[in-house]
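BUG-463 | component: ligand-complex export | severity: low

The export step for adenosine-5'-triphosphate jobs runs without errors, but we want the raw record kept on the ticket for reference. Input record follows.
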Amino acid sequence: MATSITAGASELRDITKMERIGAHSHIRGLGLDDRLEPRDNSQGMVGQAKARKAAGMILKMVQEGRIAGRAMLFAGPPSTGKTAIALGMAQTLGSDVPFTMIAASEVFSLSMSKTEALTQALRRSIGVRIKEETEIIEGEVVEIQIDRSLTGATKTGKLTIKTTDMETIYDLGTKMIDALSKEKVLAGDVIAIDKTSGKISKLGRSFARSRDYDAMGADTKFVQCPEGEIQKRKEVVHTVSLHEIDVINSRTQGFLALFAGDTGEIKPELRAQINTKVQEWREEGKAEIIPGVLFIDEVHMLDIECFSFLNRALENDLSPLVVMASNRGMARIRGTKFRSPHGLPVDLLDRVLIVSTKPYTEEDIQQIIHIRCQEEDVTLTQDATTVLTRMAMDTTLRYALNLISCAQVLARKRKAEQVDVEDLRRGYTYFMDEKRSVKWLKDQQGSLMFEEIGGEDDVMDQS
Ligand SMILES: Nc1ncnc2c1ncn2[C@@H]1O[C@H](COP(=O)(O)OP(=O)(O)OP(=O)(O)O)[C@@H](O)[C@H]1O
Ligand SMILES: [Mg+2]
């Protein structure tokens, strides 16, 4: 059974990574220089120098593959850039190193147990770089000739392929003919055929054909006609995550589940077999483990069972770097009656490198506002910038950033190009920040439903 484990990489190669847009879309990295010193304003990052530097140091260790089973925690007040720095880390890592981001509350999903959800997240964050040598046929199609039998049931044909140095004719069977017509391969296409799997991939159209305008879409890619031999041995390297290998090899799922996102629970025995197989591949030099990063945002939302599971998981040698973020001070550990710093049990805190984030200075805030305005394509007048910075100091940075787009709508309504103080002022009256909202609730003196339940942190109780 164990021998049948595959990495299914040929199916996986096409999955593209999704990019988040929104609150953090201006963050393009950590903004550090080669010596890991934070630049003042770079890659969308401003201020918070110590935390950025710490993040950069940890990443360095991850990239050197020296760090497994470690954890770090970003602790600090709301909107001090914890999530932003984690996303900056993700962008610095490069496409080969897996980075998984979850919000702790996602673990409490209905379709699988908490520990299964955590295990999947941990295994998504471990990459396996697999080397394979395959024989391929690569060249420009000169001609495809197909002969159908009288009944049309069997097809035979010939495929002529050339490189700049040679030309060869291959006989085609029904299966290859179907594959060629499915890929819509025409004369003039440059194609590669994997000899073991028979998979055909179109690499583009030959430059020599760039003047024929028929059968060409706007996104047609032109490539040079390949040189040298038509049959080549090629080493292909691809990276998949342990979780992807799990899903592909789980009989009830199949790789389509990866696209649907509906992967269900995976049996522990299968995971054990996969671990052994991957270990074998490593010993044979066919695979390499790339420990990545698992980021758990709002980690105080996990409960005591999850925390003890994490404690154990961190000791596993196939464990990624776990980065967590929390904005709680002394808070109750979910599922218990005990309070603890950041809402995390002390035994977990003991294994964690803690990095604190601090409120921003006025100057930093002004720069962040400036960056966000560029990102959202909004122009503020000089006065408006000063006022918005002031607002961010009095309320929160996030409130001020949210106000930018609202104010722009208001400015457009009066057909102005630039957002002025007046637009901000009106936005400020339409939308309350947290402080004013609390005051308003107090003024309502209990006319809203469900106001009070015992102690303050019972609100978080789930059971
Ligand atoms: N150093 C920074 N440089 C540029 N933008 C930043 C920086 N820090 C925060 N921001 C931006 O400010 C906003 C709030 O920051 P973020 O969401 O990271 O806060 P947080 O610490 O995760 O808060 P919470 O505890 O509420 O989750 C985001 O839009 C973020 O992109
Ligand atoms: Mg956050």
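Assignee comment: Attached the raw record above. The longest helix spans residues 397-413.
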